[in-house]
Amino acid sequence: MTATMTGPAGRMQIARGLIALRERCGLTQTQVAERAGVSKATVSRYEAWQDRARIRWATVKALADACEASAEEREALVRVVKSQSEGWWVGNSAVPEWIDPLVSFEHEAEYEHVYANNVVPGLLQTRGYATAIHRATELRTPNEQVERMVDARMQRQSILDRQVPLHLWVILDEAVLRRIVGDEAVMAEQLDHLYDMAQRPNIDIQLLPFTAGAHAAGSGHFVILGRDDARNPLNSMAVVYIEMRRRGLYLDDVDAVSSYKLSFDYLRSQAADSTVSLRLLGTVRQEFSS
What mean pLDDT, rounded, does the chain reach? Predict the structure, then answer.
């Protein structure tokens, strides 16, 4: 019986699938444990995607069978366990532990929606801008480690160039453009990069001007990552990421995710459309040329 270190995205898919099967049968975790011949703690651990322990495909199979899963449902979950491979970020000292799930989710997601009210999101940062951000936030960190962290951020952006690229939709508060990170040369390069990236078919950028006043975000920066599969709901994924100082908060509760999705929908309507946003980007960019 093999044990696999399944990434957070795969673990979430497995956990959500097992929970859905158990609730469909109206069973408690204790009842599933008795049927599967495992401990209640094991059931709880397999239903908690943030647990980092290794998982066994045979245990997933036993839990699915205990919940009267169909052969197709059972094999779909087992296949997730067996198909997991460790990404470049696993064990990479340049990727903080709290960021590891985010990179894993990005690797599996079809879309990512971001509201940024402070700095340009990592997927759209230039190297110069990312370096300035890391030097400001990674206090007393050696330059060599900062450079490795910037390298990792640049590598993370490769998901925008994969064969089926991530669809990235970003709403930038005007404050992001007005905050000078690095110096004016760094900002000019960053704004040029945003303008160029907004031309890509898989990237949408909208600006939320100060004149929009109070808006739906309420709090600060948040990220919604997801994958929708109507034919196989167990293959779907939805999670919200909120970055804090040296830790990240991940929300996968249905109500919480729905709340953030609603906020993002309202933000899209409150922000300038893509055409006006490009014009505003160009206007701000000119300010750094004068």
Answer: 87
